[in-house]
Design brief:
By secondary structure, the chain is of the alpha+beta class. The protein contains two helices and six strands. A six-stranded antiparallel sheet has the order 1-2-3-4-5-6, with no helix packed on it.
Amino acid sequence: MAAQVNGDGDKDRQITLIDDKGNEELYEILFTFHSDDYDKSYVLLYPAAVGDDEDIEVQAFSYDADDAGDVTSTDLHEITSDEEWAMVQGVLNTFLDDDRLSGE
């Protein structure tokens, strides 16, 4: 999966995902985090073209972070192990359940 990071400092960052067929779709970065257990950085994304009343499908990838921890790689890495997926799901659930984090 290739990605192009679009962003400007404090503004919301966006990533354009490009699938194997060359189709592009714009995603918003929900949040990023680092797991000490897996020694990887992760990014959670949702489609930019989603309506207010639509269900949102969040996608997660590991990525190669720069020294500041930012998403800079043009390659996102798919999460392949069930244990790693469970950890990412737990972090997402914590984010969604905490109003201070999710902004609700």
